[in-house]
Amino acid sequence: NYLIVGIDSAANLPGSDPVRIGRDVTLHSDTIMILRIDPASERAALLSLPRDLFVPIPGTGTSRRINVAIEQGGAPLLIRTIGENFGIPINHYVQVDFASFRGLVEAIDGVPVYIPRPARDATVGLDFPDVGCRMLDPDEALSYVRSRHYQELINDRWVTDPRSDLGRIARQQDFIRRALSRAIDRGARNPGTLDQLIDVGLSGVTVDNQLTAGDIFDLGRKFRSFNPDSLLTYSVSGTPDTVNGAAILRLDE
After folding, report:
1. How many whole angstroms from its chain centre is CA 193?
2. Maximum Cα–Cα distance for the chain, whole Å?
3. Which of 68, 119, 193, 200 measures 20 to 30 Å from 182, CA to CA?
């Protein structure tokens, strides 16, 4: 089980980068996913946890949104929170910030995504005026997977995706499938190319000290014939609510 956390951090971006505007230095977990892999059967499953999921935070005596755990106690507290609330043991930890996400997309020369309607989200700088297949560059890909206020032009009206974070999760999971397919198209089934992609990825991604480049290479070799369309995807559901004026999701047990 790999815990994959996308953090809301622009710390490694240039000072002039517009993504840095108005951001503080507090560590926020914007995206939380658990990837379970079984090399023997070449099966892989991805579970997404909404960032606003309202759960007990171990050791605090209170319930908060799950993305608060990493802010209060780093990766160890988030891992403990997932273990105590869902009974899922975490074996490895992978942390991706804005800069490293861009680097991964750049390493595979963009990711093609189908845009069915004109779309926008001013909060993250997303602007897709044209429909059809669009090769997302690193900047566009970052805004696409971050968008929580995704709007589409339907019958000459801008309509906001009512699913909010759950809609974003669906787009993120689809993006991951497409990114895997793109990596394969760029030669990831070739050991030499796979090694290069891993080197690029690990140059900006934070991993636990038990996970080595050799481990990831062996995993990639074992999954050489993996079909990205067979990636199983799941999401924890919840009921929207508010606590002290803050939007939350109460876990649908």
Report:
1. 23
2. 53
3. 119
Buried/exposed 102-122: b ≥16 CB within 10 Å, e otherwise? bbbbebbebbebebeeebbbe
CA-to-CA dists, residue 67 to 7, 98, 138, 141, angstroms: 10, 17, 25, 22
- pLDDT by 10s per residue, the chain, length 253: 999 999 886 665 555 555 544 455 556 678 999 999 998 888 999 999 999 999 999 999 999 999 999 999 999 999 999 999 999 999 999 999 888 899 899 989 999 999 999 999 999 999 999 999 999 999 999 999 999 999 999 999 999 999 888 999 999 999 999 999 999 888 888 888 888 888 888 888 889 999 998 999 898 888 888 899 999 999 998 999 999 999 999 999 8
DSSP letter for 97, please. Answer: -
Environment class of residue 24 by beta-carbon count within 10 Å: exposed (0-12), middle (13-18) or buried (19+)? exposed
Distance between CA atoms of residues 201 and 178, nearest Å? 17
What is the pTM for the complete model shown?
0.88
Alpha-carbon distance 207 to 219, whole Å? 15
Q: Which residues of 218-231 are buried (b: 16+ CB within 10 A; e: fewer)?
A: eebeebeebeeeeb
